[in-house]
């Protein structure tokens, strides 16, 4: 959760803008808050407006908008260099923070008119090295599904449905965890999920996904399910909506059982598998 009481008023106004106008998800707003609070604390240190040696401990609550009127493009570059030099931040991390700063200053200059000059006007995005994504081969995907389906665990139907949805649909972790039973249209072979940016999208299900979901629903607990989780498709042993962490643990455990490198592959890597091998996987019957 964001502790808004630690933020200056102009930062909280920006977070409200992200939520209400741009419809950003809570997680995205949280990332903006983290990035910008770190940037503002750095500015307080950079301009010698605080005696605190630890930058992250600097109090920015009473920070004046006048401080931001001093900011130049060179100062923003200095912050990005600080991230590299102090934290060895990767290009992707610096790119995200640069994007946060760019949107923030655009809001202050164009929307709120609190600044006359936008210091981030010419801010470039750090170049990110493109790497080929890691994904499972067809044989590895089949092995993973076979191992998951053949396990004797009481939750094998649930775990198999989770794995097969990841491999066939390329779903994000948050999308899978957020699936509600009512969102699934079995007759049309599709379901609606809430994706990135809190936007709804439709995912089409093949016969193997539908079969796996139906097999799980046949054994899914009905009695004693927590009220807030009664609509959830996937439940934990405590009969509540399964968590992101538990899904990650399930995937990691099944990868290990299949003899696959648990450090090389992850939930995110299974999305690459779906995108790359979707046609081949769907030709096989599990």
User: How many β-strand stretches?
Assistant: 3
**CATH fold name of the largest domain:** hpI Integrase, Chain A
Spatial order of the strands in the main sheet? 1-2-3
Going by CATH, what is the homologous superfamily of the largest domain?
A: Intergrase catalytic core
Backbone CA Rg: 23 Å
Largest sheet: 3 strands, antiparallel
Strand composition percent: under 5%
User: How many distinct helices?
Assistant: 11
What's the number of structural domains? 2
End-to-end distance: 41 Å
Report low-confidence residues grouped into runs of 5 or more.
Answer: 281-286
N-to-C SSE string, H for helix and E for strand = HHHHHHHHEEEHHH
Average of pLDDT: 87
Task: Give a quick set of tags describing it.
single chain; disordered C terminus; hpI Integrase, Chain A; mainly alpha; 286 residues; DNA polymerase, domain 1
């Amino acid at each position: 959760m964001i502790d808004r009481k630690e933020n200056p008023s102009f930062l909280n106004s920006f977070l409200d803008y992200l939520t209400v106008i741009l419809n950003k998800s809570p997680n995205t707003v949280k990332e903006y808050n983290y990035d910008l609070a770190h940037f503002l604390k750095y500015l307080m240190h950079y301009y010698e407006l605080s005696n605190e040696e630890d930058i992250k401990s600097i109090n920015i609550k009473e920070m004046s908008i006048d401080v931001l009127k001093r900011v130049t493009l060179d100062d923003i570059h200095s912050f990005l260099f600080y991230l590299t030099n102090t934290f060895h931040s990767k290009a992707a991390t610096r790119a995200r923070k640069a994007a946060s700063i760019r949107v923030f200053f655009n809001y202050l200059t164009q929307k709120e008119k609190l600044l006359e000059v936008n210091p981030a006007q010419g801010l470039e995005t750090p170049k990110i090295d493109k790497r080929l994504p890691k994904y499972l081969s067809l044989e590895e995907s089949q092995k993973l599904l076979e191992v998951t389906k053949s396990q004797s665990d009481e939750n094998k139907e649930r775990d198999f449905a989770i794995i097969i949805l990841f491999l066939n649909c390329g779903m994000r972790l948050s999308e899978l965890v957020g699936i509600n039973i009512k969102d699934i249209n079995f007759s049309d072979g599709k379901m609606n999920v809430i994706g990135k940016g809190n936007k709804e999208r439709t995912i089409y299900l093949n016969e193997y996904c539908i079969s796996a979901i139906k097999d799980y629903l046949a054994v899914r607990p009905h009695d004693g399910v927590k009220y807030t989780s009664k609509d959830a498709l996937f439940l934990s042993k405590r009969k509540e909506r399964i968590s992101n962490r538990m899904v990650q643990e399930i995937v990691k455990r099944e990868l290990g059982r299949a003899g696959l490198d648990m450090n090389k592959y992850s939930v995110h890597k299974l999305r690459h598998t779906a995108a790359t091998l979707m046609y081949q996987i769907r030709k096989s019957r599990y």
